[in-house]
Amino acid sequence: MLVIRSLSTEPAFNLAAEEYLFRNFSDDVFFLYINSPAVVVGKHQNAMAEINPFYVAENKVKVIRRLSGGGAVYHDLGNLNFSFHQTVADTSKVSFKKFNEPIVEVLKQMGITAEVGKRNDIFVDGYKVSGHAEHVFRNRIMSHGTLLFNSDRKALSLAIKNPSFAHFQGKAIQSVRSKVANIVDFLHVPVPIDQFVAQIQEHMLNSESNAEMYSFTAADVEKIENLSTEKYNTWNWNFGYSPNYRFEKSTNTKFGKLDVELSIEKGIIVSSSILLNGEQTNETIKIQQMLMQCMHNIEQVSAEYIKLDDFNIELDIFLSCIF
Prior knowledge:
11 helices; Enolase-like, domain 1; 4-stranded antiparallel β-sheet; alpha+beta; 323 residues
């Protein structure tokens, strides 16, 4: 087994590294990485429905889609991420629960009693401290998870809580919310996250036969960075890959009731209906025309809306109507 610890905290790089290891290595791999603040959504989710777009935009939290399914999770510098990669003879006989056993053992060594739940998440005293997801292609499997060690739980709750979630309609996979806690909360003597990383790393090196440290070569880094640029840092992957959806919302403004209906395909608004007090006006027609082929994100919609100098609803109010 190759044990790899990423030296980068760039979310797009590390998620690209996971795909690179999955598709290009035949060895068993155990990969550890820490990301700067990001919301990481599952492959089949509607990214916009899973985030609080205003908090994410204001705080420059990146939104990245991963290769595996499952729900949205929040990453920051207090969150350790791990992934196992294996080539197996028969993927149908793989128990993904086993991949969390080394983590549970390390927690036990630290004086924490943990257990693996039905969806292979890890719980301590009923609180979720680790989410889990997997990806399978042919005979290659990846099982990965997050470890909430000392994450900013307030930022977590703000970043992945979308107050407009009920207004999204579509076939995307929805996240299942759980009570969460940080691992450090259960330690008698708190330790820094680097010590936690080192303990997990040492455990894998000592418990797995033929385990050895591996560092990305210059060629590895170049290929990972190319994949990051071409895929994980793009709107098309992170938002455009979302299943088609509809967004419907009614908001009371000082000018009256504003009813909004949007149809979004590949992250792009393809049709819209804007009614003010139940009627179309010259102004609402202009907004409908403006929204056509516009990305359903705050930055582009804001830039286009401020060009409409004859519509009186303030920008922040208007944005709250369509996000």
